[in-house]
Amino acid sequence: VTTGYILSLGITVLFTGWASDRFSGKNLYIAGIILFLIGSIFSGIASNIDILIIGRLIQGAGSGIVVSLLSTLIVRAAGGKNLGSLMAIVGLPAVLIPILGPTIGGYIIDQLNWHWIFYVNIPIVAVSIALVIWLMPKFPASKKYGKSFDWIGFLILGGMFSSLILGIVKFSNYGNLSSANVLIPLFIGIDLLVAYVIYAQKFSKHALVSLSLFKSINFSGATVILLMSGITVNGAMFLLPLYLQNVRGLSVVWSGTYLIFQGVGLLVSRTQIGKLTDRIGTRWVVLVSVVIAVLSTLPFAFFDANTSKYLIWLMLFFRGIGQGGLTIPVMSDSYSGIAAEQVPEATTATRTL
After folding, report:
1. What pTM, to 2 d.p., does this model score?
2. Rounded to 5 degrees, what angle do the CA atoms 309, 312, 318 make?
3. What is the dihedral of CA 156, 159, 161, 165, to 10 degrees?
4. 3-class secondary-structure state, position 113
5. Between residues 176 and 84, which one has the greater pLDDT?
6. What is the rounded distance in angstroms from the CA atom of residue 350 to the CA atom of residue 36?
7. First-to-last CA distance in the chain?
8. Residues 6 or more apart from 111 whose CB is under 8 A from it?
9. Letter string b/e over residues 197-225, b meaning 16 or more CB atoms within 10 A of that residue's CB
């Protein structure tokens, strides 16, 4: 259910970068929201696991369009200037997600049933579509930069992404790297990555993601940090509810309430990080944020059922500050020095990672 969503999102991201040059950004964005709505309805009415997975695949496709297209359109609208402050402003509503999401989700699970986790998206999507139609610029297709879709690159990268995800899932099931069920998809994924590098070097003008992007030190550094921070942030967001519910015995509502403190930390950092990034650059902001994130995450390795809740709240608060100080400057820095025609490709690469 979870992996299918991620897989669908990742593959759709590969298509969205190219599509943003060929179609109206506004229409493409609306299409992504509608896909997410259809996926939410499918997931909500699911009476068995197969229908739920299909719904999540559709949801992932919609998310892949919306999430990756948003960054591309923001950079285009700004002309590549003051990206730190802009990312902080645009991302401010997203801070509400870790504050409100787990609490509301916990309440829904506690008082209603899991189907409503998906039904609650319906009014949100309806309002979103209305606001996008009313307020969003059209972002007409950029024929100047348009090129034919790279189906070969798409199939290679899509296969790579699918194989690596499958290998990771198998590893989580089998618990060791010696099993053929784990190694075969991982090796296929690595082989396809090598194949794409060779292909993109030979057909650089047609490649879905140009390797010339990685000649930029800013871009290369940003993609590595995004990959590593994604592992730590998403990994912790998966583990924390398990710790709070299974070890400390908290209800789903109280688990969500604990996570509010991380959201508050995010909110505190978001208000200042954008300005600091534009003023002193990304390097020192990210280095300090990494230190804060590490120092506030390590104590969780020693927490148990009897650890003071105040200490947990404090560490979650500082974790939120560290997380906010990583995401905004790194995302904005990944576009520094990137040519306008490479923005969609840069978004595809960063979002896939």
Report:
1. 0.71
2. 145
3. -160
4. coil
5. 176
6. 21
7. 20
8. none
9. eebbeeeeebbbbbeebeebebbebbbeb
